[in-house]
Design brief:
The protein contains 5 helices and 11 strands, in the order ββαβαβααβαββββββ. It is of the alpha/beta class. Helix 1 runs parallel beside helix 2. The N and C termini lie close together (about 10 Å).
Length: about 250
């Protein structure tokens, strides 16, 4: 029953960015459509809120991402927005997509998102601010730090990038599987890269009224590597084989 959007309820779309080096993450909690513009804005906010202070001299950003969704390798808008981000930050953005069907290789799954879902297990998600607070209070014994913020921007669906506009982008493909490995912006930088993991998850409904609560799943249903067929039917939302269950 929590897979269908109720007009009386709010919804949030948490987009996570995980920094492998610092063992820290940023979750951009959107309230509108899941689009490529939203995905790149989430990376931008991570850089402004966390990355820039940790890596002030960085001139190259390495992003590993899943192959589908709003940050999919076939999404033209994703590439256009990455080009804008590269120009804005004045750094090379190297993108490496995981091959189809291998999203569980993405370390954000079992280094950050599984701990977030365990942290709010059994707690009523009564407002958007509660969601942000529960995400931001997630820690582990290994030192994981997570920050979160609400993104109140509106993101239009159905934005088309024409062939002519795509041709103007400075996208360089790698020799090895250039459809998955490419970089917008200047290349040839010799400085160390900031390694970032990005992932998108489905909309999470957040009730506006404190008397109506979102459903929480048992802990065993939230394990990142639990096969889909062993999860309770009617509760799990699976995107590109990612467990985004709330």
């Amino acid at each position: 029953m929590d897979q269908f959007i109720d007009p009386e309820l709010g919804k949030v779309a948490p987009y996570g960015v995980y920094d492998l080096t610092a063992n820290a993450g940023w979750v951009n909690v959107g309230i509108d459509h899941d689009t490529a513009e939203f995905a790149v804005e989430s990376i931008r906010r991570w850089w402004r809120e966390m990355g820039e202070a940790v890596y002030p001299n960085a001139c190259r950003l390495l992003i590993t991402a899943d192959c589908g969704g709003s940050n999919g390798h076939r999404v033209r808008l994703w590439r256009r927005e990455l080009q804008k981000l590269s120009d804005e930050l004045r750094m090379t953005v190297q993108v490496c997509h995981f091959p189809p069907g291998t999203s569980k290789w993405n370390r954000i799954e079992h280094r950050m998102f599984c701990h977030i879902t365990a942290n709010w297990r059994g707690r009523p998600l009564s407002s958007r601010q509660v969601v942000v607070n529960l995400i931001g209070s997630t820690t582990t014994r290994e030192g994981l730090r997570v920050k979160a913020g609400i993104d109140e921007n509106a993101y239009a669906k159905g934005i088309k990038v024409t062939d002519e506009e795509l041709a103007t982008l400075a996208i360089e493909r790698d020799a090895f599987h250039g459809e998955w490995n490419y970089r917008p912006g200047a290349s040839g930088s010799a400085c160390p890269a900031v390694i970032v993991q990005v992932i998108i998850s489905r909309f999470l409904k957040v009730p506006k009224s404190p008397t109506v609560h979102a459903v929480s799943l048992p802990h065993h249903s939230r394990l990142p590597f639990l096969p889909l067929e062993k999860r309770r039917p009617g509760f799990a939302v699976v995107v590109e084989k990612q467990a985004a269950v709330f």
